[in-house]
Design goal:
The complex is a heterotrimer of chains A (about 500), B (about 325) and C (about 300). Chain B is about 75% helix and about 0% strand. Chain B contains 13 helices and two strands, in the order ααααααββααααααα. Chain C has twelve helices and two strands, in the order αααααβααααβααα. Classes of the chains: A alpha/beta (about 500), B mainly alpha (about 325), C mainly alpha (about 300). The interface between B and C is large, with 49 and 48 residues.
Chain lengths: ~500, ~325, ~300
């Protein structure tokens, strides 16, 4: 079998972060090669290198035996590499046929548009993948899964020989998933190669030929699917030693501060969530990307208010239909997307830090720059924010320091419930440890902390209890001292654990 | 929006300084070549004539800070002017009561803009384009196009035509409004939230800022200010006509953008707007006193506006071009 | 057909208006005044087509009124210098295109927001024209009005020209790649770039084309009277933007048809004469225009909200 793609000793760093270390990866013609790994293991970076979005720092890429010196998205496209992302790059106001047409046709302005051919080709492609989507439908009216199917049709139409699918079934229904598998089988039969990224082990065992596991930017194993099993794969995925030392819990949790009963939000895909967060405890919320953790946080915080179930704050049934309502109740949310939601990049640190506490420190709505500056300096010291001063704008800070500013903003509200969404994502090791100490201290002071994290060691090291989400609801409630294996299994939906 | 706030601040400071320098240069130039330009009388005249547009520009600044725009302020001025006349003449109200009712109408009209823009989240450009037409049309329809209101009592005309404490009476209203808006934008949490909304409406929302209420506030304020400007206009001219305020919104927007407020929102200042109003007013007066064609003032204003815009956006454009050459963009994906 | 819902509703509104007129004011339907009305609006239709392209591309141009005035006066002056009319036409189009290029360079080249750029150019051209002409009308020599043809022929010619342009542009928008690129750029700039379309070039081109159409419309207007009013084109931007928005072109770009714009323009153009014939004061026309714009944008907003949920 010919090698469609061969990566040798590929490395890639972003600043101080080593995303890929000496990766070797190959794809044969007519194979489905699954790529497995936790969030942050390096899968996305690997894909970006293959599609030409990022150049590698070191190593070589060979496509069909020919070394690719300079890969760019346009060149990758020409070489027959197509990637289907979860966020499709489609034109919302145009029809499916037009979207496929614009992507596949060469951009020659003066040519006449052959609508019949466009509709025909779109119809053909859609039929081939078995999607029941009309070529005349506007993209805007399609659901996300349907849009993804259109993207797949585009890739097919482009005659791609190396097709990368990044979590394609994350939002598909059973029927659409079945269509996808048929497409993958067709691709394989036609001699194309498929790189399939997914967390769903059952799918991998269903039709993948080989599987490669990435961990911390390294490839820890490539084997034939026949020769392995779930347990082995999970072990490979999480197999690092949890050598990080986390601050110990020093107090026993008190009564429940926040109780969710059958909480649901149709728009966010959250269904039937029930659990308590107790004072003085850190409840870790684990799960894979797409499990609904951020959506749940947004529902509790009032960004996408709940349409089902109830929220109790210290036994009182409350309604949270806006972020203001949440803040007024003492609920704080440090968002996952710090650049868009956590920090306003154009504004100074001090202003960002005080943005949620205007009522308290600026009585009568008068700004008090002295008070603001003192508050900012205090937090800068507490959290060790590296900046040239409280007047430095948000965008002048590194990602980790921006995260600290975001955290400071919400700590300033002296909340009763603190929801942290990936609090140490993109933060360096030293700062991580500091933040962990702070979180543990907050819990000790009586705060109820809900910590969403994709970093397994962090979840395991910090949580007093672990709630695992899957498919928009709570799949399991585990004790804090659980094994990584158990958490991962619950997140993946596997039965049984290593004990 | 990845703009360099520190860099922007530098530009802005430079911008206001440059504008001040332009203003000073204008003054010196026109004083030299014009007749009776640099006199106290003329200065008062300039002040008197720029109050209405100045008020509109003050109200326009917070709107543009939030990333919005209001094209209907000039038309609303006209509507309020004739309604004021109607309240006084046809409904027989005493002047203060008529004024209060007019301001009430202004607030309601601003509320119309506010509800469509803040609640229904419709694009401000088109909404205010519609109300631009609606308000002017109402003004013309109510007066049947011909009716004007005159013969106001002298005590009222005092506001527009006489001086108090040595300066034009309406300037006191303008100064009060300027102080109010300066404090609002630069010293209160409202102003802070306007900027946050302008930079990132989503980011502001996640920070717990009541975006809808704040946005509604700036449009209702604009309505109230338009009404006040209408009353002053009527006092100055001694008559209220339906075509009052025609073209004023464009001058207001020009003054605001000239003063360094970014049309994208977030960046801007009231003192910049005041400088912008002054620059335009002095330009117009200077040209008249230099016996140059009045149209030159308009042309120069347009040119100044383009230069101001280009100057403020050039750093961003250059860094964008550089960034695009360096990195290649791909569609977003989850990790 | 759900796809053409907007176009159909506007046409229906127009139909109801005409029906009401037929019942209450049949004097509206006299052939000669109707022809005059349609002829007067023919240049507006041409400009509205250009405006539609600009708005579909997610931009706006409020300087068309001033461009129109300058082109009209220039055309008049050249005609008064006895230039052959064909050359005058070409000159008018080129002058308009130059204005458009200026706008386009600032918007596409420097990335300046089109609302403020066209605000600045609008004021500059208008004041410049007023300065040069001092409000003096241009007297056209004999033979210029209606191209020297009898009035009725001239009127029908203009109407035909406008309709032909409408149809050609509608066809180009629908059936030629370049037309689809405009929709693509207006719908999602990033996706357009990824698809190999060049958004900045398209934006620049759209503004140039807008200017050229304005120049053509100015010529069409000039030959309708024996004199050229330097104040022609006042309110043209509002009229055309209103027609475009009412006709279903979204201000957010990427959608709308010229058919809808045509229906929208007819609807708005009929309002004032309709008011006259119904013995309602003409001033209510602006009120109705404003209300229709608001209705249209509220309808768009509600439709978007439904789809996003």
């Amino acid at each position: 079998m010919k090698q469609l793609l061969q990566l040798s000793a590929v490395t890639k760093s972003f600043g101080a972060v080593r995303a890929l270390k000496d990766i070797s990866f190959d794809l044969r013609a007519g194979e489905v090669h699954a790529l497995l790994g936790e969030n942050g293991a390096g899968k996305s970076t690997l894909i970006k290198i293959i599609t030409g979005a990022h150049p590698p720092d070191g190593g070589t890429i060979e496509i069909k035996g020919v070394r690719a010196e300079k890969l760019s998205p346009a060149i990758a496209h020409k070489l027959g590499i197509a990637c289907i992302y979860q966020q499709p790059a489609l034109f919302p106001d145009l029809t499916v046929a037009e979207n496929i047409g614009l992507r596949l046709e060469r951009a020659n302005s003066l040519s006449r548009v052959d609508w019949k051919k466009r509709r025909q080709r779109a119809g053909e492609l859609l039929r081939r993948i078995g999607a029941e989507i009309s070529p005349d439908a506007e993209i805007r009216s399609l659901s996300m899964p349907e849009q993804q199917l259109v993207e797949i049709a585009c890739a097919l139409g482009a005659g791609a020989r190396i097709v990368i699918m990044d979590e394609p079934t994350a939002s598909l229904t059973e029927k659409e998933t079945g269509l996808l598998f048929a497409i993958i089988r067709d691709l394989r039969a036609s001699g194309a190669g498929v790189i399939y990224i997914s967390h769903r082990l059952e799918e991998i065992f269903q039709f993948a030929d080989r599987v490669t596991v990435l961990r911390d930017g390294e490839s820890v194993g490539t084997c034939s699917v026949k020769d392995t099993n779930e347990t082995t794969l999970i072990k490979l995925m999480v197999g690092r030693e949890i050598s990080q030392i986390f601050p110990l819990a020093e107090s026993t949790p008190g009564e429940a501060v926040l109780s969710l009963k059958n909480l649901g939000c149709a728009g966010g895909g959250v269904k039937n969530v029930s659990f308590d967060i107790r004072a003085g405890e850190i409840l870790g919320l684990a799960g894979l990307v797409g499990a609904g953790r951020t959506e749940l946080a947004r529902t509790i915080f009032g960004i996408t208010p709940a349409d089902a179930g109830e929220i109790f704050l210290r036994g009182e049934n409350i309604e949270i239909n806006s972020p203001q309502a949440a803040v007024a109740r003492g609920i704080a949310y440090v968002p996952e997307d710090r650049r868009r939601h956590g920090v306003i990049l154009e504004m100074p640190i001090a202003q960002n830090m005080t943005m949620a506490i205007h009522r308290r420190i600026f009585p009568g709505t008068w700004l008090r720059f002295g008070v603001e500056r003192a508050c900012a300096l205090d937090f800068i010291r507490q959290l060790d924010v590296r900046a040239y001063g409280p007047e430095a704008p948000g965008h002048s800070l590194s990602g980790g320091n921006q995260q600290k500013v975001s955290l400071a903003r919400w700590l300033a509200t002296k909340p009763k419930v603190l929801i942290l969404d990936e609090p140490t994502q993109g933060v360096d090791v030293g700062a991580k440890s500091e933040i962990h100490k702070i979180i543990r201290r907050l819990a000790k002071d009586g705060l109820a902390v809900l910590m969403i994290s994709s970093d397994l060691p962090e979840i395991l090291g910090m949580s007093d209890r672990i709630a695992v989400m899957r498919g928009g609801t709570i799949a399991a409630m585990l004790p804090g001292k659980s094994a990584a294996h158990d958490v991962m299994s619950a997140a993946l939906g596997q039965k049984g654990g290593a004990g | 929006m990845d703009t360099d706030k520190h860099g922007f601040k530098t530009v802005l400071l430079r911008h206001e300084t440059i504008l001040f320098a332009v203003l000073a240069a204008e003054w010196i130039f026109f004083d030299a070549i014009g007749q009776n330009f640099g006199t106290y009388d003329n200065t008062c005249d300039i002040l008197r004539h720029s109050c209405e547009i100045g008020l509109l520009a003050l109200a326009m600044t917070p709107i543009i800070l939030t990333g919005g725009i209001d094209l209907s302020v000039g038309s609303l001025l006209g509507l309020c002017a004739i309604l004021f006349g109607k309240f006084w003449r046809d409904a027989g109200m005493p002047v203060p009561l008529a004024a209060a009712c007019t301001i009430g109408v202004g607030a309601l009209a601003g509320g119309l803009n506010a509800s469509l823009i803040a609640w229904l989240r419709l694009p401000p450009l088109i909404v205010t384009l519609g109300t631009f037409s609606l308000f002017r049309g109402l003004a013309e329809a109510i007066t049947h196009g011909v009716d004007t209101f005159t013969d106001f009592p002298a005590s009222f005309l005092f506001l527009g035509q006489e001086r108090w404490l040595g300066i034009p009476a309406q300037a006191l209203v303008f100064i009060a409004a300027a102080i109010f808006f300066w404090l609002l934008v630069h010293r209160t949490t409202f102003g802070r939230s306007f900027r946050a909304i302008g930079f990132s409406p989503e980011g502001a929302r996640y920070a717990g800022i009541p975006v809808g209420r704040r946005v509604a506030m700036v449009y209702v304020l604009a309505g109230i200010i338009s009404a006040i400007a209408a009353i002053i206009y009527t006092a100055r001219l001694g008559q209220a006509k339906a075509d009052a305020g025609t073209g004023y919104e464009l001058f207001a927007i020009t003054a605001v953008v000239l003063g360094g407020t970014s049309i994208f929102g977030g960046v801007g200042s009231i003192h910049g707007t005041l400088l912008g109003v002054a620059a335009i007013a002095v330009l117009h007066s200077g040209i008249a006193h230099a016996l140059l064609p009045g149209e030159m003032a308009g042309m120069l204003t347009g040119v100044l506006l383009i230069l101001a815009l280009a100057g403020s956006i050039l750093p961003k454009t250059i860094s964008d071009l550089r960034a695009r050459k360096a990195a290649l963009k791909i569609p977003k994906q989850t990790a | 057909m759900k796809k053409y819902f907007r176009e159909i509703s506007v046409a229906a509104a127009l139909g109801i208006l005409l029906l009401a007129l037929a019942i209450f004011a049949p004097s509206f339907f006299q052939p000669q005044p109707l022809l005059s009305l349609v002829t007067r609006e023919a240049p507006t239709l041409v400009v509205a087509c250009g405006m539609a392209l600009v708005i579909i591309c997610r931009q706006i141009d409020i300087s068309v009124g001033s461009q129109f005035a300058v082109c009209s006066v220039c055309a008049g002056l050249l005609a008064a210098m006895h230039w052959p009319l064909a050359l005058v036409l070409v000159a008018s189009i080129l002058i308009g295109a130059t204005f458009g290029a200026f706008n386009g360079a600032l918007v596409a080249g420097l990335g300046l927001p089109s609302i403020v750029v066209t605000l600045a150019t609008m004021v500059t051209w208008r004041e410049g024209l007023r300065w040069l002409r001092q409000g003096v009308w241009v007297d056209l020599p004999n033979g210029v009005q209606w191209f020297g043809l009898p009035q009725m022929t001239g009127q029908w010619t203009l109407v035909l020209v406008a309709l032909v342009i409408l149809i050609l542009l509608a066809l180009a928008l629908k059936h030629f790649a370049i037309g689809r690129f405009i929709y693509a750029v207006g719908s999602d700039v990033e996706a357009a770039r990824l698809a190999g379309i060049r958004p900045r070039l398209m934006t620049f081109g759209v503004f140039v084309f807008m200017g050229a159409l304005t120049g053509l419309a100015a010529m069409m207007n000039t030959i309708q009277s024996p004199q050229v009013d330097p104040n022609s084109g006042t309110g043209l931007e509002l009229k055309t933007i209103a027609a475009v928005v009412v006709g279903g072109v979204a201000i957010s770009g990427g959608r709308g048809t010229l058919l809808g714009v045509f229906a929208g323009l007819l609807l708005l153009a009929c309002i004032s004469p309709a008011l006259t014939h119904l013995h309602v004061e003409a001033f209510w026309g602006k009120v109705i225009q404003g209300a229709i714009i608001l209705l249209a944008v509220v309808a768009d907003g509600l439709r978007n909200r439904k789809q996003r949920n």
